[in-house]
Design brief:
Layout lengths: L32 E3 L2 E3 L7 E9 L10 E6 L8 E6 L9 E8 L9 E7 L17 E7 L6
Antiparallel strand pairs: 1-3, 2-3, 3-6, 4-5, 4-7, 7-8
């Protein structure tokens, strides 16, 4: 039956939530990590500095330590891993942090090189459960040093 007068929500144990605006635990209530990639070049003997801005475009924050893998070429193959770096601060929704890695240039080469950055790099699923997993890579092409080694 339907009561003639509704019981006040705030008087029922565990239900004092009448005017709250809670989104709940949904499929889209998750972080979404994205990455960009740029390269700073100079003398080949100094190496190439890769700069990857990591952005949380989702609706939940992530803790520090999100790993970015940097690769030689267009594919994230383990044998082409140039190195890794990690974020140092928490990333709340909308925040970004630049992660950098300097890679040595192979002897007698000056480029052009291609590099790939993969955010949330690690085990196959990644350490962070995201709402979108297909936007975690960025490529930079045509990277050359000023002078050969």
């Amino acid at each position: 039956t339907i009561p003639a007068v509704e019981t006040d929500n705030w008087t029922v144990t565990g239900l004092n939530n009448y005017r709250t605006n809670v989104q709940g635990e949904g499929v889209f209530n998750a972080p979404d990590l994205t990455v960009g990639l740029a390269a700073s070049v100079g003398l080949c003997s100094k190496g190439i500095t890769l700069e990857a801005p990591v952005t949380n475009a989702g609706s939940l924050g992530v803790t520090p330590g999100v790993v970015v893998g940097f690769f030689w070429g267009k594919t994230p193959a383990a044998e082409k891993l140039a190195g890794t770096a990690a974020t140092e601060k928490p990333l709340l929704p909308g925040q970004s942090e630049k992660v950098t890695l300097t890679v040595p240039v192979p002897d007698a080469e000056s480029g052009p090189f291609e590099f790939l950055a993969v955010v949330d790099y690690g085990d196959p699923e990644g350490a962070v459960l995201e709402c979108l997993e297909d936007n975690n890579m960025a490529l930079v092409s045509g990277v050359s040093c000023v002078e050969p080694r």
